[in-house]
Amino acid sequence: MVAGRVDPISTINLTRTNWNIKVRVVRIWLMPTYPSTSSSHGIEMVLCDSENNKISGFFKSIFLNKFKPILKEGAVYVISQYSVGKNKGNFRVTSHEYKVIFQFTTRVIPAREDGRIHTYGFE
């Protein structure tokens, strides 16, 4: 990560690949796949920044051992080296046009508590 540079969630789009965000994990949950006979799943989350913008985050079940022990609801992180994808489908937890997709190379660094980032992400 470039020292000190943090991108607002509102600016995230498909034009770059080197986004760095400082966010609070407002909510995190296990997302089963459908049909229910499938054994794979993923983790969905809502991320909120200091401007109270929210974006959906997701990682596949193959990354559970890497990210689940690190990510805690209510904690603040600096996240980088992830992919950006369109936020589409029938189940959209945020109104942001895009979502953060965690990859094996994604960096998740715990950050100090930041009172500027709303605890629950309410408007």
Automatic annotation (TrEMBL):
Gene3D superfamilies: Nucleic acid-binding proteins. The keyword Cytoplasm does not apply. SUPFAM superfamilies: Nucleic acid-binding proteins. The keyword Calcium does not apply. Keywords: DNA-binding, Metal-binding, Zinc, Zinc-finger. Residues 7-110 form the Replication protein A 70 kDa DNA-binding subunit B/D first OB fold domain. One of its GO terms (molecular function) is zinc ion binding. InterPro entries: NA-bd_OB-fold, RFA1B/D_OB_1st. It comes from the Eukaryota. Belongs to the replication factor A protein 1 family. This is Replication protein A 70 kDa DNA-binding subunit A-like. It comes from Senna tora. The lineage of its organism: Eukaryota, Viridiplantae, Streptophyta, Embryophyta, Tracheophyta.
